Amino acid sequence: MTAIHKSAIIDKSAEIGDGCSIGAYSVIGPGVKLGAKVRIHTHVVVTGRTTIGAATEIFPFASIGHQPQDLKYKGEASTLTIGAKCIIREGVTMNPGTEGGGMTTAIGDRCAFLANSHVGHDCHVGNDVIFSNNVMLAGHANIGDFVIIGGGAGVIQFARVGAHSFVGAMSGLENDLIPYGMAIGNRAHLSGLNIVGLQRRGFARADIHSLRRAYRLLFADEGTLMERVEDVSTEFKDHPAVTEIVTFIRAGGKRSLCTPRDGAAA
What domains can you pick out in the chain, each with its CATH number? Predict the structure, then answer.
């Protein structure tokens, strides 16, 4: 059964799925769509053209779907889409897109956003992503699947963070982070591969060995980066994870690539 506290304010145009729970003093604005079994705790505000997937849970004082923190925003009908089975903890803020960024902010399934983290306008966040407390994701950033970002870290606008990568706590990431990579520091540098994450997700020892060898070749001193990319592409053409890194580097973006400091190991 759908359970709505008598003090909650639900706009008549909002769509509330079967089995939803909406707590005391929460506000669900016009145009909001809640999937089945979404749980909204007390003192939550969800507004704008926001769609929330089934079984997502939102904790007190989260502010979801208010207009972007972009001075160029002029009220365009942009959207925010949040996937299924996400956990959005206390004080989290998420903004919809803008005309300058494709009009949508999109978040995948099974993500966890811990207290006071922020997802800026026009961001795209994959599946199974974890933001620790106070993570700051600036506008237009792209976060791959299974990424973990440590507490208090900040990611610059337009940055790409590859799948299965890890950003250490209190880091300031101002460049693109390769898939499976690990970045730490302010300003963050590439400090190796996310070996612990790979092991936890069941990657075979042989695959991790290949990734480590490819990493060393990619960030060696000899030749240019693109020359090393071509060499790695040829040597590891049948290795999907290495190919994913090569494809990420070749695709490029608006930011430079996050690279190791002297002595950084895989």
Answer: 3-140 (2.160.10.10), 198-251 (1.20.1180)
